[in-house]
Design goal:
By secondary structure, this protein is an all-alpha fold. It has a domain of 116 residues. Helix content is 60%, strand content 0%. It contains 5 helices and no strands. The longest helix has 31 residues. Keywords: Signal.
């Protein structure tokens, strides 16, 4: 799933660049800045002295104590991780495809096409967030449950726009999930 989020972030950057060349209003041309879509402007993973507990920095868990997240999750983690990975893959793929269609339609002055693609991209985000919350409810490992719930909340705050993707926050959550899922 980590590769999917990285791919989504890269696609978001590429789509932003494409949108800029298509005279899209409000685009800035670079990659979204850290903290976009977040009022906290969370630090980069592993930022020295960040002091932010539970950010996914190596060796920091929900309490900020070293090594808390180091061990893979127990219980039904394998089943939950597999389901979360599949749901994320499907949702991210749809989100990227529809966001691209929306930007293309906007560039072609196809308002109806852009709106239809926006609705489908928003639906992909709703499905992704719901799937993460569903898997969180199924998880028997408290750490895995918490990370999946956080991913569900973060995805739930996103909109069908490049600007709403907080790639830093998603990467931090993904790093924590990767550790817990043993990937």
């Amino acid at each position: 799933m980590r590769r999917l989020l990285v791919t989504a972030a890269i696609a978001a950057v590429l789509l932003t660049s494409a949108a800029c060349s298509g005279e899209r209003n409000g685009a800035t041309g670079g990659s979204p800045s850290p903290g976009v879509g977040s009022s906290t402007g969370t630090p980069s993973p592993g930022a020295p002295g960040s002091g932010v507990p539970g950010t996914g920095a190596p060796g920091s868990g929900p309490t900020g104590s070293p090594g808390v997240d180091a061990a893979p999750a127990g219980g039904n983690a394998s089943e939950v991780c597999d389901a979360a990975t599949k749901a994320s893959a499907d949702s991210v793929r749809t989100f990227i495809e529809e966001l691209g269609k929306s930007l293309q339609a906007t560039g072609a002055n196809d308002t109806a096409g852009a709106e239809a693609a926006q609705r489908k991209a928003e639906e992909a985000l709703r499905n992704w967030g719901s799937a993460m919350r569903e898997q969180s409810a199924k998880a028997t490992d408290a750490r895995l449950k918490a990370v999946l719930a956080e991913i569900g909340t973060e995805v739930g705050s996103m909109k069908a726009s490049v600007e709403s993707v907080d790639e830093t926050k998603l990467d931090q959550l993904q790093q924590r999930l990767d550790q817990l899922c043993g990937t």
